[in-house]
Amino acid sequence: MSTTPLDSATASGVHDVLVVGGGAMGSQIAMVCALAGRTVHLVDTEPASLVRAEGQLRARLASRVEKGRLRTEDRDAAFARLHLGTDLEAGAGRADLVIEAVVEKIDVKTELFARLDRITPERTILTSNSSSFVPSRLAAATRRPDRVCNLHFFNPALVMACVEVVPGEATSPATLETATAFTRELGKEPVLLSREINGFLANRILNAVRDEAVHLYEGGYASLEAIDLACRTALGHPQGPFELQDLTGLDIAWFTKTARYAETGDPADLPSTSLDARVAAGHLGRKTGRGWYQYAADGTKQPA
Ligand code: NAI
Fold it and tell me: How far is the CA of 30 from the centre of ligand 1 (A)?
């Protein structure tokens, strides 16, 4: 007897899913859906992205099987339900729900939403995994703003439980109900916003912590190490804000701040002087051996 979650949970009515963009996020989101019993089309314009996506997913799932966390037959069934290709139309015709996970460029996304609006059935819900753009901006490119919302997964999507469900100005209650139920059926925790704001919840809170950490450091109130230590030992964060930024890349933090500034025009949103200087010097974090900290070959670190 099959034991896929599909047997117990399809209250959302979402059986066929189209995921567009097979990069870091889209590939794992597609597999989350396939593991939850959905038929999934994963589409990317770059064949190389799809080859990489399949290789990475096979390696990740092999490791789950080795650790006894996933049965071989469930893995094989999930791969059998996952169809990879470059033809957007192939997965569009039957899709109950689309998850867009292409590059974070508004022009690319709005063009794609306009096309998805033309080629998917009228009932299909269109969602975006964008980290920053609000759904209303994408909905404006379609004739179905009531069936557009964001489903914001976290990296790595196969592991992280949180999915922010973000309504746009015109998103209907029925769309939100379906999106929330579907998220639960994936084994994730839907976190519903009452109304849209760029960056949503978790990343905005994280960014506020980072900004305050930089403010304290640049003001000479404490060392990097003291600030990181306070976050770990008092707030229970697994890593301090500087340690985390070294891991995710100072360039990413710089781009996020610059994009936010472009949107708001608020000088408080500009990258800080110390972040600017490090990025200009090519000190991008662990990947370059130096960011906020300097990393030795044995993994030990000291403030840079
Ligand atoms: P990525 O750069 O790893 O992958 C993007 C993929 O989209 C590439 O494979 C590219 O070939 C493909 N693509 C570009 N234009 C396309 C089009 N028109 N049609 C089909 N495929 C297209 O990017 P990543 O990191 O997976 O991010 C994707 C989205 O997820 C972005 O909106 C990002 O903001 C969001 N996101 C990223 C997170 C992260 O930690 N990387 C976390 C949560 C959301």
Answer: 13
Q: Which CATH number fits the domain that encloses residue 93?
A: 3.40.50.720
Active site residue 150: no
Give me the pLDDT at residue 66, please: 97
- CATH code where residue 222 lies: 1.10.1040.10
Identify whether residues 145 and 212 lie together within a single domain. no
pLDDT at residue 16 in the model: 98
Q: Which stretches of the chain score pLDDT less than 50? A: 1-8
Nearest to 170 by CA among 201, 128, 139: 139
Ligand 1 atom nearest residue 108's Cα:
18
The answer to whether residue 197 is domain-embedded is no
Of 137, 157, 192, the residue that ends a domain is 192
Are 167 and 98 in the same domain?
Answer: yes
Looking from the CA of 83 toward its CB, the CA atoms found within 13 Å total: 15
Cβ 256 under 6 angstroms from ligand 1: no
How far is 37 from 182, CA to CA, in rounded Å? 12
Structural domain harbouring 276: 202-303
What pLDDT shows up at residue 9?
57
Among 27, 128, 129, 131, the one annotated catalytic: 131
184 and 206 belong to one structural domain: no
Q: What is the pLDDT of residue 248?
A: 83
Nearest in space to 126 (alpha carbons), one of 155, 166, 99, 91: 99
pTM of the shown model: 0.90
Nearest protein CA to atom 29 of ligand 1, as residue: 101
Catalytic residue check, 198: no
Query: Is residue 35 included in any domain, yes or no?
Result: yes
241-256 b/e (C-beta count within 10 Å ≥ 16 → b):
bbbbbbebbbbebbeb
